[in-house]
Fold this sequence. Notes:
Layout: E1 13-17, E2 20-24, E3 29-30, E4 36-37, E5 49-53, E6 60-64, E7 90-93, E8 99-102, E9 119-120, E10 181-186, E11 190-195, E12 199-200
Parallel strand pairs: 9-12
Antiparallel strand pairs: 1-2, 3-4, 5-6, 7-8, 10-11
Amino acid sequence: DPCSLNPCLNRGTCENNLDSYVCHCPPLFSGANCEKVTNLCKSRTCVRGQCVIKETEPFYECKCRPPFLPPNCKKATKTCNPNPCQNGGTCKHRRRRKLQCFCPESFRGDLCEIGPSDCYEEDGSNYRGQVSLTEAGDRCVYWNSPLLLSESINAFMENATEAGLGDHSYCRNPDGDEKPWCFYKYKKERLKWGLCDVTPCPPS
């Protein structure tokens, strides 16, 4: 029974076909074993944001930088109204609809989203915090970005959920590196990876 080996990936269903098998793939996936992810971001423009691939219709989403709004990050709210800064942060308007959050003590991040308890233990394999910057200050790419489809580590790999990968750009350590890391963009669409600006937890 060729289907007994579960050859179909990404929740594809297997049907025996004489001495072989056929995989019936869910939407978004294709290929003999449902191993290919369809990149709907190719034909989409996210003006002030980043396009990511989703497993539910319409199978893509624009992740907009505040104050820009979905669906295509073209329109914006008033820069600091509503205030996107979290944890009591103060929002200040900068030029060209850019904003800056001034965070209360012990909070940091673009939107003051990173608190004092956001830290990693051992090699950070279980880190599930919200840091999304490398040590050099590069902004992390979403794990479900189309840029990562050619990488072996992304939100669509096997065991992605267990590794903490998904619809976000937070640093993770899915491969047993020395600490949490992420991919980041350089030279337009090229990728590099870097260790993240995550703090080790104090000894308990």
